Amino acid sequence: MGELVTARLVLHPMTADEAERVVAGEPGDGAGWAPGYPTEGDVLAAKRLLGACADSGDPGPFGNYEIRGRDDGRAIGGVGFHGPADASGSVTIGYGLVASQRGKGYASEALRALLDFARAQGVSRVKGDADLDNVASHRVMTAAGMRPAGQDERVRYFEITWTE
């Protein structure tokens, strides 16, 4: 499984060894981390990846990706799938950046790349959500092409669907 490259970012598929280092908070040899990485969300995603690896093996392309800057290679956040596509071809995604890298369009850029990748893998629908007060995340999903799909008392839901 190769890296996904955008104009400013590299989405690096996280290995189990890298996930263990993220959980431990230890970058390891040659891994550059931006200040504040990993975030709590990155640690949770790494734990989910390790759980998937233990339960059913490497989730392959439907795992986690470290978001790295193309210019310096430092990890600035993460984006990924909560698991493989279900029987209807639907996946759920998540993403996040360290505080110092927010507001620069990186999250939308990374999410667009992940959406394009999911579509190329035959996925028919991608879902995501954010707390009602997380307007920045709502903007990220909208900028990446996702549309509001409902809300409850706590969360706004987004999705994008392809019918071809």
Largest sheet data: 8 strands, mixed
Can you name the CATH architecture? 3-Layer(aba) Sandwich
Task: Name the CATH class.
Answer: Alpha Beta
Number of strands: 8
Rough shape? globular
Number of helices: 4
Helix content: 25-40%
Here the CATH topology equals: Aminopeptidase
Report Rg. 15 Å
* Class of secondary structure makeup: alpha+beta
Describe this structure in words.
The protein has an 8-stranded mixed sheet. It is globular and about 45 Å long. It has helices at 16-24, 40-56, 106-120, 135-143, and strands spanning 4-5, 9-13, 64-69, 75-81, 90-97, 125-131, 147-151, 155-161. The two termini are 25 Å apart. It is of the alpha+beta class. Helix 1 packs across helix 2 and helix 3 (106-120) packs across helix 4. The chain contains 4 helices and 8 strands, in the order E-E-H-H-E-E-E-H-E-H-E-E. The chain has one domain: 3-Layer(aba) Sandwich (Aminopeptidase).
